[in-house]
Amino acid sequence: MAQAVRIDGKAFADGLRARIGVAAAAFLQQTARRPGLAVVLVGDDAASQVYVGAKAKACEEAGIASFEHRLPATTSSAELLTLVERLNRDPEVDGILVQLPLPQGLDEQAVIAAIDPDKDVDGFHVINAGRLAVGQTGFVPCTPLGCLMLLKDHLGDLSGQEAVVIGRSNIVGKPMAQLLTDANATVTIAHSRTKNLPEVVRRADIVVAAVGRPEMVRGDWIKPGATVIDVGINRLPPTDDKPKGRLVGDVAFGEAAEVAGAITPVPGGVGPMTIAVLLRNTLVAAHAHAGLPAPEGL
Ligand code: NDP
Fold first, then answer.
1. Nearest-5° angle of CA 86, CA 100, CA 13?
2. 220 catalytic residue (yes or no)
3. Could you tell me the distance, in angstroms and rounded to a whole number, from the CA of residue 167 to the centre of ligand 1?
C-alpha cells in the first residue's frame, strides 16, 4: 500500500495558471496590450510540435498573446538569427522561446545567445544562468523553478534540509541545485560518475531525480519520509495494453511511494508545472518591459 502523499503538480499548475490569468487581465487593463510570448519551432519533430501546440493553447487560456513561428528544417542559421533579432526588437513580444532540440546543423548555443536576456523566459541564456549563480534577479529555467514551487508548497521552509539532485544538466539539475542552495538546503549534486548513488540518495530529505532513466531510483534508496520530486519523463516500449508505451519517471513510483513522505507522480507531477512557469516568466517579463512592479503571488 502506498503511504506517501501524492504531490499534485497538475492541481498546483492549474491554480498558478488561474492566478496568471487574473494578473494578465490586469496587465491588459493597465497597458492596453496582452503579455506576448513568441515560440519558434524549426523542423517537424513530432514531440516538439506537441509541446509548441500545448504552449500556445496555455497562453491563450491565460490571456497571453502567442506568436508562433514555424520554420522548415532547411532554415539556415542566418535566417533563424534574423528572426530572433526581429523578435528581440518587437515591443509586442515579452518572451522568446526557441523550441529545442534544433535540427542538425543549427547551433543551439548561438541561437540562445542571440535572444535578449530580458526576453529569455526559458532562462537558458548564459546571462540568466550567471544571474542565478550570483543571486541576481533573472529568468530561471521553468522546470526547476516549478519543482521549487512544489517543494515550498509542500514543505514550507527548506532551511537545513538535505537535498540530493540527481542530474547536472544546464536546464534542470544545475539550476535546481542553485535554487535549493538559495533556499538554504544542503545540496549534493549526483551524476553518472557518483559513487554509491543509492547511499547518497538515502541521506536525502529531498530527492530531485532528473536523469532520463526509467525508474532508476528504487524504493530502498529513499529515506523514510523523504520528499521525492521526479522530473523524468520516459516512455517505455509499447505493450498490448499500452500500445503507445507507458510513461514513467526516473523513480520507481510504486516502491518509492511505500517509503517516501511525499512524491510527485508521472504524469501529473512536474510536467504540468513547466508550462505554467513559462507563462509566469512571460508575465514577469511583460511587467518589467512595461516598467511595472513584478506581479505578486506568482
Ligand atoms: P540530460 O540528459 O541533459 O541530463 C541527465 C543527467 O543525468 C546528467 O547529468 C547525467 O550525468 C545524469 N545521469 C545519467 N545517467 C545516470 C546514472 N546512471 N546515474 C546518475 N546520474 C545519471 O537530461 P535533462 O536534465 O534534460 O532531463 C532529465 C530528465 O528530465 C529526462 O527524463 C527529461 O525527459 C526530463 N525532463 C522533464 C521536463 C518536464 O517538463 N517535466 C523538462 C526537462 C526534462 P552526467 O552529467 O555525468 O552525464
1. 95
2. no
3. 5
Residues 6+ apart with CB under 8 A from 53: none
Condensed to tens digits (0 to 9), the pLDDT of residues 222-275 reads: 999 999 999 999 999 999 999 999 999 999 999 999 999 999 999 999 999 999
Q: What is the set of domains in the chain, with CATH numbers?
A: 31-120 (3.40.50.10860), 142-272 (3.40.50.720)
Which residue out of 122, 205, 230, 250 is catalytically annotated?
Answer: 122
Establish whether residue 117 lines the binding site of ligand 1, counting it when its CB lies within 6 angstroms of any ligand atom. no
Give 127-185 pLDDT, tens digit per residue. 999 999 999 999 999 999 999 999 999 999 999 999 999 999 999 999 999 999 999 99
Q: Which residues lie below 8 Å from residue 180, measured CB to CB, with a gap of 6+?
A: 148, 151, 158, 163, 165, 187, 206, 208
In the chain the first and final C-alpha atoms are separated, in Å, by 35
Distance CA 220, CA 192 (A): 19
Contact 24, 63 (CB under 8 A): yes
**Grid coordinates given for 145:** 523553478
Residue 145 vs residues 67, 159, 270, 279, 298: alpha-carbon distances, Å: 24, 17, 10, 12, 11
User: What is the residue with the minimal CA distance to atom 30 of ligand 1?
Assistant: 232
Ligand 1 pocket residue status of 171, Cβ below 6 Å: yes
The kind and range of the H/E element at 125 are none
Note if 250 is an active site residue: no
Ligand 1 pocket: which of 124, 165, 172 to mutate (most atoms <8 Å of CB)? 172
Q: Is the pLDDT of residue 2 over 70?
A: no
Identify residue 214 by its one-letter amino acid code: P
Side-by-side strand order, sheet with 5-6: 5-6, 262-263, 227-230, 206-209, 162-166, 186-190
pTM here? Answer: 0.97
